[in-house]
Amino acid sequence: MSQSTFTILLGGELSLTERLRHAIGGSRFIAADGGMRHAMALGVMPELWVGDFDSTPPELEGGFRDVPKQPYPAAKAATDGEIAVSEAIARGARRLILAGALGGDRSDHALQHLLSAVGLAERGFDVLLTSGKEEAVPLVPGTIELDLPKGSLFSVPGFGPLTGLSIENARYPLTNFHLPFGSSRTISNVAEGKVRFSLESGRAIVLARPYDLSGV
């Protein structure tokens, strides 16, 4: 993996699965506030630690004294995660892995991570959001492929109407489909292996559960 791949350690849930370890292998790391606890679990040393540190316990700070800290006031115009992503981009990031972006106690933060990921994809960045057990990839006009285990579940919620949506190699394929905003038609599909997604216009997110094989 190149030095243009950055893993941003965020405050949500994170399970140490094989897919997670493979995804972050060889990447550089930046921690956002309390997301530094994942660095301890992963056995990695971030090159930067940003945030207002309102969710960082003293014992965590003591374990990473050598990591450069970039503090911000609590009353700021961006989340700690957004600041961490901006720092990664300034250091040359082209691929961003948002680890700990899904789940957790703050559903507002989880939703914002999804929206931000779509915005980053529209700017040309390659983005993966992961909790280890669940993964999310932005879907904007163009084509992407996800290598998912056969029988695993995935959904494609849209952040607006979708035009020309195609899903290949799935139990419920679609071809050049128009998805109205708010429709549940693309919830709970089943992968048949590597799934191909194409979109003509709109914004969506592919939410996959690669360890949930209940669709087998």
From TrEMBL:
GO biological process, alphabetically ordered: thiamine diphosphate biosynthetic process; thiamine metabolic process
Alphabetized InterPro entries for the sequence: Thi_PPkinase, Thiamin_PyroPKinase_B1-bd, TPK, TPK_catalytic, TPK_catalytic_sf
Residue ranges occupied by any Thiamin pyrophosphokinase thiamin-binding domain in the UniProt entry: 142-205
EC number(s) reported in the record: 2.7.6.2
Pfam families documented for this protein: TPK_B1_binding, TPK_catalytic
GO molecular function: ATP binding; kinase activity; thiamine binding; thiamine diphosphokinase activity
Residue ranges crossing the lipid bilayer per the database entry: none
UniProtKB keywords: ATP-binding, Kinase, Nucleotide-binding, Transferase
CDD domains with a match to the protein in the record: TPK
Family matches, as SMART domains: TPK_B1_binding
Matches recorded under NCBIfam families: thi_PPkinase (TIGR01378)
Name used for this protein in its record: Thiamine diphosphokinase
